Amino acid sequence: MLDIGYSLSNRFPDPPQTDYRRADAHALRHDLFCGDVYLADADADADADADADRELSTAWGWVPVLDFAWALCTVVEELDRDPLGSRAARPQYAELDFTESADRMLFRRRFGFVEVSADWVGSEERPLSFAHAELRREARDFLHDVLADLTDLHEGLADNPVVWDLQARFPRV
Predict the structure, then answer these.
(1) What are the phi and psi torsion angles at 115 (to 5°)?
(2) pLDDT tens digits, residue range 99-112?
C-alpha cells in the first residue's frame, strides 16, 4: 500500500508578510511551505513481504511541499502518455527534480506498474513499486490533503486562483 506524506519545517518558515491570496505560482511552488516528504510502501502484512515498510524520504527540511505534490501529479500524468496505457511493454520514464538540488526521484512505468527510486538512495536499494492507478489516486489525494492542510493554516490561500486551477487540473480520483 502506498503512503505519501509530509512534514513542514520550523527552520524555513514562510515570510510573515506573505499575502497567500495573491501569491503567484512561482512563490507557491518554490518559496513557501518548506519541509520534508516521503513515499512509503506501508504493507500491513510485513511478515509476508520483504519489501514492506520501505520508504523514500527527504530529511533536508527545505523541500517545497506543495511543489512536490504538484510535481508528483504531473509526473504520474507523464507516465500515462503511451496510448497503450497499462498494456505498454515499452518502459516510460519520468523524473521529479528538487529545487535547489541535483537530487531526483526517478519513475519507470512498465505495463501497469511504476518503480520509484531516488538519486540519494544507495544503488543496492531496490526501487519501490506501485500500480500506476494507485500512484495516481494517492498522488491526487496527497495534493488535495496538502492543500486542505495549508488552507487551514494560512488565511487567504483558499481564495488564491492558482490553488483553484490546481484543484481543477488534478481532481481527486
Answers:
(1) -100, 135
(2) 778 899 999 999 99
